[in-house]
Amino acid sequence: MDGYIDQIFGENFTIIMIRVVVALLLSGLIGFERELKNHSAGFRTHILVGVGSCLMMLLSLYGFEAFIESSDNIRFDPARIPSYVISGIGFLGAGTIMVNGMTIRGLTTAASIWTVAGLGLVVGAGMYSTAVFTTFVILLSLVFLNNFEKLFKKGIYSDLIEIVALPGLQVNNIVSIFESYDLTIKKVEIERIDKDTRNIFIKIDQNNGLDRVALFEEISKVDQVKNIIERK
After folding, report:
1. In whole angstroms, how far apart are CA 13 and each of 7, 43, 158, 226?
2. 41: how many CB neighbours lie within 10 A of its CB?
3. Beta-strand relationship, 158-165 and 225-231
4. Digit-coded pLDDT (tens) for 98-127
5. pLDDT tens digits for 187-223?
6. Distance from the CA of 90 to the CA of which of 46, 132, 167, 227 falls in 20 to 30 A?
7. Which residues touch 229 (CB under 8 Å, ≥6 apart)?
8. Closest C-alpha to 125, from 178, 77, 177, 78
9. Rounded to the nearest 5°, which phi and psi values hold at 61?
10. How far apart are CA 119 and CA 115, in angstroms?
11. Domains of the chain by start residue, with CATH
């Protein structure tokens, strides 16, 4: 059967087909984990990156055999195309990173896209056991280490309060409100959005006994305050 398929599609088609399917499955597993957590790059994105990287590696390995066999002067470098994949995939990962004041989201998803590209290249090279083991390690890191990180940070976690304000707001008035609730301010950052609006980010130590409704109500009484957002 394999010989019949190879006669129609080429002698390496069976190997290529298996490697593309393996790349699809492994990258799909990582993408599915990202999809469950509603990240910007999910199931389909990871599959496309993994399969595309596998395709580039297969092209590098098998796409130029006819030219190599026809001439003794052609040099074969199977790492050339994959090297461009590794350096070029960064633009896609950068698209998943969102910066909002002091909050940065998407770094883990960007890293997973870059890693999936590596998985595709490894599968394309036929290193199945390495790819499967690496997929297992990545999933273990994404699923279990996330919970471990939350447990580790418990007690030293910080809350981030974003205040959208009009010009003329005295930041000291806002700070005094936080201090009246015995809150420890760790960081204050002011970001100008336009000539009429600016964002004030205040990071405070976590306080489970804090009456957030009362705090936000008092902040909202300040004339220049337009909106208050609590970020985790």
Report:
1. 9, 26, 54, 62
2. 22
3. antiparallel
4. 655 545 567 777 888 888 888 888 998 888
5. 788 777 777 788 888 887 776 677 888 888 888 888 8
6. 132
7. 161, 162, 163, 164
8. 78
9. -80, -40
10. 6
11. 2-153 (no CATH), 158-231 (3.30.70.260)
